[in-house]
Amino acid sequence: MTAETGSTSRRTALKYLGMGGGTVAASALLAACTGVQEAQNGGKSGPFPSTPQWRFVFVNHVTTNSFFVPTRSGLADAAALLGVPEPQWTGSENGNVAQMASAMETAITGKADGIAVALTDDNAFVDLTKRALGAGIPVIAYNASAAGNYPLAYVGQDLYLSGFRMGQRIAQKVTSGDILVGISQPGGNNVQPRLDGITDALKQAAPGVRVQSVNTGAEQAGELNAMTAAYTGNTAAKGIYAVDAGSTAACAKLIADRKLSGKLGSGGFDLLDDTVTGVKDGALDFTIDQSPYLQGFLSVLYLYLFRLSGTLVAPPVTDTGLTFVTKENVGPYATARSRFEGGDNKDVLAMPGSIPLPPPSVLSR
Amino acid sequence: MPSKPALLGVMQVKELSILLVTIAAGIYFTVTSGAFNSLDNYQTIAQYVAPWSIIAAGQVMLLICGEIDLSAGFVFTLAPFTMMQFFVNGWPLWLALLGAVAVSTLVGVANGLIRTVLGIPSFITTLGMAFLLQGLVLIISNARPVGTPKDSGVLEVFGGARWTEFLWALGVVVVMQVVLSATRFGIHTQATGGNPVGAAESGIPVNRVKVVNFAITSTLAGLAGILQGTRVGSYDPTNGGFTTMFFAVAAAVIGGTALLGGSGTVVGAFLGALLLGIVFDGFNLTGVSANAFNVVLGAAILGAMVLNVTLIVVRKRVGSRERT
After folding, report:
1. A230 to chain B nearest CA, in Å?
2. Strand residue runs (E) in B75-142
């Protein structure tokens, strides 16, 4: 009797263990897939000597956000081009700074060969950056930067400047009255500088314009509600603008819903589908492209060259862009579904017959 | 045979199976990653484990008496900002810290009173409280992070110096386990969840037990929030929240606490948090990227629980055979 119970329990145990084993096997399979990719990327690229399999780590604040899909394509492309394994993409799904800090710490203890981090917080990454550099691990800031930290370089949009240029552009169209400006996270390192830039530029170029900021929150449905409510409360507004991707899409949708196209000024940032459609249909005057692709691609390139040259090729601070997307040049954004803007199209894209003029060049003195 | 009772004793330790699973996870990552067994990495794991296990120590008490606190994650977020609010208004730092912990306690008392006096289920009470606190945090902080005060001896003890956060966690776990298993209050807590009607009829102040447990959970959550923010060097309105709360509850349940009340241990919850911390850190260390991360994490948690349940079954079988 006892023996029988024993054998049953052993069988049950084996069955359960088998299931557990299945899970282990599945994760091993996942790991194996990565292994195959790594094997394809040799260890040598073009004119460069063969290198160890350098492991770069990207620490991000919203790892699963669609904005960063092109960034991930960019870092994967650069890694494939240079013959290093595809960098790890980690951090937090919802902007949790403590979780990002832990991910960066893990990268340091795991002896990563380079770290790219979005500095969304002024204080949390200072000691970590120092520790990484102290351990011989190069650190680059991408997408968001912070004062008082020590990354070798920043690869991303100059946020204040982008807001300032946007303000100048607004002043060409609106010279008096109120404008509404949607912002997803007042005070956030990655959006507030843009709002400050707009306000400062308008003070110089169109002092009659009053900026009314609208706190829209980070959820897309809520952003449309907030913008709609703000406009309903101030229908005399001369313009509807935004400084983050979601709020810009909300502006486009609001203008289309209320049939306000052409009646007031409008514009914003980034290239969500609704935004691109809005620019194409004339709901938005412009949107600003900050090239998330380059933020991934160049970060990997810089880390690679820095290591390869034993620090001789120091990474330069790179403003990844301030491209105004308007009705004239929106064509390829709307139709190409390009890998460079988050689509899956890897084909060569045709050049347009003529190139619209960018803003005039300015020399800093 | 002298070994028989000893074996029986070991087999009867409730936390044995989860301990074995945790050790197995440790062995797995030791084999797959060279950097896993290093002091620096132990510290990273400790940083994951500390906040979860501190909050879980309170949640275990609440779960045992048949309640849950969904707002604990936002008390965690709020406490550092309450502290800074007091601090910038001229309070000495130690007093500001004490004040922030006291405010956290009051939140718990409010939760408990709404639950027991008005009879609103804790799920709804604390869900409402969670959103209320989240909004409060955003208003106080203006949705932007604040740096920790520099060069403060007080904060060195509360998370500033290396390992202090984890030492606090260990202390909390030990104290709460003793409270649960060796005091009259702990026994009342177990009775309240195991058999509410019987407990009330035998003279246990069921409602008071619940209010105190809400207060304990909230106090611990506030403490954990201050510890983590100080360790990171920045108090951030995105820290804590529902994610942290759910990891704490998950740690408690993985560690053997019944979701419907009646039984559980604080040490088990600590081991649950340790398992989650090892898995979280380990997969990051071995280079799993974000999209695949949750798949692997989820599979690992499911796998660990299947193994855990299996071990419990085996343990009980062996235990009953030894006895006969």
Report:
1. 19
2. none
